[in-house]
Amino acid sequence: MTYTLRSSIQQLSLCYEKTFRKKRPLSIGQRDFENIIYIWARKWIPELVSDCFSVKTLGPPYVIQFMLMALDSEPENIDVSHPPNNLRVNFMMDLLESLALPRFDIDFYRGVWNSYSRSITQPSSQYILDEEVVVNALSGIDAVVRDTPIRGKWTEILSAEEALSSGNLPEKDLVSIVSAAALLDTTINLDQIYKALLERYTSGSDTP
Questions:
Q1: CA angle 128, 62, 119 (to 5 degrees)
Q2: C-alpha distances out from residue 64 to 29, 168, 184, 199, Å
Q3: Helix, coil or strand: residue 189
Q4: CA proximity to 58, closest of 178, 179, 198, 181
């Protein structure tokens, strides 16, 4: 992480903290309120910045794999060191939608996640006290992470996905191939592809 980005995150956290203090609910005690501010400013915002960076760099493959991990986890076991999965996934979906990548059905994945999220409890919602403040924080994070490498990489990933779906190892770079593999149906056996990929990149050649 560069110094400029780290500094921006620190400024964003401080800005969030100041804004949040103006929105303290009367039902929340001072000690609990300070704990909530600390969790957001020092833990959740840096994690959400990382999510934003990953989405703008890797795109749908990152989000899909995160969703699969979340769907396979125990939703009631919340670790306050990380934002709740529902907040993270919805944020990532909004980022993907803003990228407007071709041939990616954002509505399908939103539907999958929404069906899941409605079926579980959200015990960490106690840390989300004001929706307006949260929206402003997420908008600030989006503004901090400006570069979108996935825009220039998406066509290569889609091409690699087509080759993998046909059982062929594409003549693409490693990032495109691994990202494409993350988009495939989980029932597809990629053992031979991974074996060929391993041989390619351990043969001493830097090119496909």
A1: 45
A2: 38, 22, 10, 27
A3: coil
A4: 179
CA atoms within 13 A on the CB side of 191: 2
In the block, which residue shows the tokens 């908008």?
139
Contact call for residues 45 and 12 (beta carbons, < 8 A): yes
Rounded Cα distance between 144 and 4, Å, is: 10
Write the DSSP string, 102-120.
TT--HHHHHHHHHHHHTTS
Which 8-state DSSP code applies to residue 188? Answer: S
Q: Where are the domains of the chain?
A: 3-144, 150-201
pTM: 0.84
**Rounded Cα–Cα distance for residues 192 and 96 (Å):** 31
What does each of the 208 residues of the chain score in pLDDT, given as a tens digit?
454 667 777 777 777 777 777 767 767 788 888 888 888 888 888 899 999 999 999 999 999 999 988 887 765 556 788 888 888 999 999 999 999 999 999 999 999 998 888 776 554 556 766 677 788 888 888 988 889 999 999 999 999 999 999 999 999 999 999 999 999 988 888 899 989 988 988 876 555 5
